[in-house]
Amino acid sequence: MIRLGIVGSNYGRIVQLPAFRADPRCQVVALAGSDLARTAELARAAGVPKAYGDWRALVEDAEVQAVAIATLPSLQARIAIRALELGKPVFAEKPMASDLAGARAMLRMAKTSGRPTMIDFNFTQIMAWLRAKAMLDAGAVGKLRHVTVHWHVESRALQLRMRNWKTVGDDGGGVMGNFISHCFHYLEWFCGPLAGLSARVSGIPSDGELETTVAMAMQFKAGPLVSLSMSCASYLGIGHRIEFFGEDGTLILHNPGADYMRGFELSYAKRPATLQCVAVEDPADAQYPDGRIAPVSRLAKLWFDAIERGGTPAPGFAEGYRVQRLIDMARRSHSQGAWIDVAAEDARQESAP
């Protein structure tokens, strides 16, 4: 039995807790939050034996064998590094850290400790996405020509004009950390490494400090271009839509609803046919009140497998650091008004001592 402690009493309790409990190998033994009294009450209600008002106490608890983190990006690096120093596997959220230096330190400690790590890039564990990936890998659309991402929603944080890490661009947040981190990961998961990018970032007219909108042009190392338009300040936006255009056909993932995970439809057409819906079922998802739980439970299974048997599960800290580098490049592209040669920067990093 893997005895797990969760740092974070919101997403950690609402999503991570039931996702980890879905695996019979895991027992959640502790929950940490910033307010001990509130965390103790939440832990009692959820049937978690221990509650802490400080993350250090949970991480250093000898009964806790592995640590899951669901905190601000600015806290995540310190928590993860301390857990790894103690030899405890870590399941972390995206973005990996508030800056590139923090992500680099996390990756370095993960390599030193040799313990399994995981980053919660959960879109890639949605069943419709797994089916789309298998079809692309099997050549369903032929040689890829172009990929588009249209992600236009109005987040709850923007509706309420909340000023936190999800809406403000410092400390690893804003639209880059909260949304584009997912895009960078899933684009490379679907189609391989990016070779270059150009980005522009903006807020809303009434409050320029809120980071809400990104327009990007990218190119895969294999050649095809990517067009991305994303805004979390889009009232009645189209939702989340990804289109893969190939020489032989087209594949589309589209979720028009407000639930980020639940509601994706997969459509496919092979020349000369028209688009048809591809039926995909997920029996596991139906049992949960939150659409994020089933995808996270699949990531948790990969992590538990590695804890028990060894190996390097993906997406781990290596993939998280890769996304952090791409976020850093996108921000530099915006500030410099320049195209960033990702492939050249990759080559320099690989040749560095």
List the uncertain runs. none
Q: How many beta-strand elements?
A: 15
Q: Strand order, main sheet: write it out.
A: 14-13-12-11-7-10-9-8-15
- The number of distinct helices, counting runs of at least 4 residues, comes to 11
H/E element sequence: EHEHEHEHEHEHEHHEEEEEEEHHEH
- How would you sum up the major sheet? 9 strands, mixed
General form: globular
Structural class: alpha/beta
The average pLDDT score comes to 95
Topology:
Blueprint: E1 2-7, H1 11-21, E2 26-32, H2 36-46, E3 50-52, H3 55-59, E4 66-69, H4 73-85, E5 90-92, H5 100-113, E6 117-119, H6 127-137, E7 144-152, H7 156-159, H8 174-191, E8 194-202, E9 213-220, E10 225-231, E11 239-246, E12 249-255, E13 265-270, E14 276-278, H9 293-309, H10 317-336, E15 340-341, H11 342-351
Helix pairs in contact: 1-9, 4-5, 5-10, 8-10
Descriptive keywords:
6-stranded parallel beta sheet, 9-stranded mixed beta sheet, 15 strands, 353 residues, alpha/beta
